[in-house]
Protein 1
Amino acid sequence: MATPQPTDRSTDVVRPSRTEVDRRHQRRLIAAGVIGAIVVVFAVINLNDVKVHWLIATGQTPLIVVIVLAFLLGIAADRLLLARAKRKRGADS
């Protein structure tokens, strides 16, 4: 009776070829460049000062600063809510 030969599982893994990886990397770089250019144009367009009512004071601030600050606060809130949900799921299991 013949014994089955062990199979090499590393051959079962399908890896993308080097050209596919290079193309994917090139597409990401192009997309990052386009997004970067849009952000720069947006920043240059929104340089006007606006009146902002901060929590403790009121003042004139460039609109781009207000937009970036709101974006960063949104990211921080998202991360906090995701961390809270993850902790809650971990406590339930």
Note: Helices lie at 18-45, 63-92.
Protein 2
Amino acid sequence: MKLKLLLLSDGTYVIAWIYELPEEPKAFLAMPMQVTNKGKGTSLKTFPLYSQQEFILLYSNSICTIVEPDENLRSKYQTIHPDEPDIELPKSEPQEQLLTEE
């Protein structure tokens, strides 16, 4: 898993540990938090709002881009969630390659 900043299609920024899945839903997020502006700085809020769920799945059509968070945001997030989650993720099976004669 990697700590990433996601820009969602509705304009929401989310920082979370992410594991990209081979099929839809495309992203498994652990301990996601919404990034919001607060005065001259940023703050982190529970994501999704009104839920204490720590693991969520997102479809690729919900995600505009995935980038590295800047050091300030990374530090703020790791104050709340200092460690990478210790969970067992599914292993994807390698796709069989079909050989065709030309």
Note: The helical segments are 71-80.
Protein 3
Amino acid sequence: MRYTRAATIALTAMAMAVSGCGSSSKPLTRAELTAKANEICKTVTAKISTKSANTQQQIGRVAEELASFEQTALANLSKLVPPPELESDWKQFVAGAQTLAENTAKLGEYAKANNLKAAKGLIRSSEATQKQMLAIAKRDGLNACEQVA
């Protein structure tokens, strides 16, 4: 079911954000940021494998749980300071994760309201965002993130 993919995409963003919850006042080096991001993505892959939603009701429940968690995690993710050469990509990556988090919350609402038409639009939006995040992951050497972006 396509809703499962959207929930998985959102979970990915959430888990990536959670693991990057440290704050830095000075820019991380490219190697530091890459290492942290790759470790985060390994955690994401493990978390995704424990979640599933095969019905619309399950999607509504899982999405609701994830949305709250994602918002907190994203606040922490945005505290990381990338090196200057990755600043633009990092901002786009974080913005993508924010979009996915927002879509997760909306997907849960739409699933509960049986609004399949609106849910399909969110899924398309999430897939487009996922493609952008994947391009950034490939370009910046976030190898483990390529599997989950």
Note: Residues 14 and 146 are 15 Å apart (CA to CA).
Protein 4
Amino acid sequence: MPTAAKIATVAELTEKLQRSNATVVMHYRELKVSEITDLRRKLRANGMGIELKVAKNTLLRIAARNAGKPDLDGIFTGPTAVAFIYGSEPQGAKAVIDAVRAVRKENVKVTGGILGNQVLDAEAVQRLTTMPSREEQLAKLMATFQGPATQLAATLNGAAQKLVYTLVALQEKLQTQAA
């Protein structure tokens, strides 16, 4: 029979999984409680909207199923901490990986993550950190759309200018012939 505390924890984890843009899962085998608290504080203070939560794998699996992400059972193994990223996914993942590297302990490592409903392995989380942010991607897309439109406008403007110059030259020629 589940206790009220476990039911509350599952509800909280479910809500975090649904609300977060991405998550990074890590093992924290050698960390003391004070070091986890320090890591949590660093992630919260960086302004990226990251929240670190330590939970039992069984509760994480139940919460994942409740959140509509049933394929996550494989990444919840060992002593698991989950970093919920509410802001930019690439920048948040980079902040988590940098914080884990700063700990400098061999058994503290990123083991995977979640982006949308897709499960990521540790290598995919590392690749996520090199992606441009959403804003940068939108700016590149807009530049791609704007290029042909600018060329079309210049071409049409050039044709109109040539027509005007031709008409002005014709007017001057007719004026000189009439004089």
Note: The helical segments are 4-19, 33-45, 57-66, 89-103, 122-128, 134-178.
